[in-house]
Amino acid sequence: MAEPLHKRLGAQLSGLIQSGTFPIGSRFPSIRQTSKEHRLSISTVLEAYRALEEDGWIVARPRSGYFVSSEKGMAARFPGATVGASKPIRLKPGAIFESLRDYSSDPAFVSLAAAAPGTGIVPESRLAALVREVMRQAGRKALAYTPPQGRLELRTALARRLFENPFKVI
């Protein structure tokens, strides 16, 4: 059985985004324009756009149209992780700092201590929505510093869990 038209269109359009035909942040063609160009019904194109939006390829902006998402577009341009390319490091128990110091001179060791994501990697619109939601729910408490010993609720929950399920440290 043939693949549905909206899935074929979605695959074709996501391929165009990956190849850079539609740059990150650029305006995506309107549903009517795509419908005319591909000689498909508006409902088929709308279904394809919904799938692209769910997959993170495009973002709908009310009264503005669709735009290429920076989140998925950036991820598509980065090479994937190579599985099994590196070997795990065996750390000496009780001497983690010495072990890390010893391995830090190894040229294959990559320190991520000062790593920060690039500006195009962070999904800004989603992050802004989450910040608004937290501020709406917690208000000024969201901006307060946690005491150095940690939140009382978390400490209590951890103590309860350790008491119920003790584990042996070797």
Write up this protein.
A hairpin with a 3-residue loop joins strand 1 and strand 2. 48% of the residues lie in helices and 5% in strands. A two-stranded antiparallel sheet has the order 1-2. Helix 1 crosses helix 3 and helix 2 crosses helix 3. Among the domains are: 73 residues, Arc Repressor Mutant, subunit A (Orthogonal Bundle); 44 residues, no CATH class. The protein contains 7 helices and 2 strands. It has 170 residues and is mainly α.
| Assembly type | single chain
Rg, Å, rounded: 24 Å
| Model regions low in confidence, pLDDT < 50 over at least 5 residues | none
Instruction: Provide the residue-averaged pLDDT.
Output: 80
| Class from secondary-structure proportions | mainly alpha
| Number of helical stretches of at least 4 residues | 7
CATH overall fold name of the domain at 5-77 = Arc Repressor Mutant, subunit A
For the sheet with most strands, the description reads: 2 strands, antiparallel
Query: Strand sequence of the main sheet, in spatial order?
Result: 1-2
CATH superfamily of the domain at 5-77: Winged helix-like DNA-binding domain superfamily/Winged helix DNA-binding domain
Strand content: under 5%
For the structure shown, list the relevant keywords.
170 residues, mainly alpha, Arc Repressor Mutant, subunit A, 2 strands
Secondary structure layout:
Blueprint: H1 5-19, H2 31-38, H3 42-54, E1 58-61, E2 65-68, H4 70-77, H5 96-104, H6 124-138, H7 152-164
Antiparallel strand pairs: 1-2
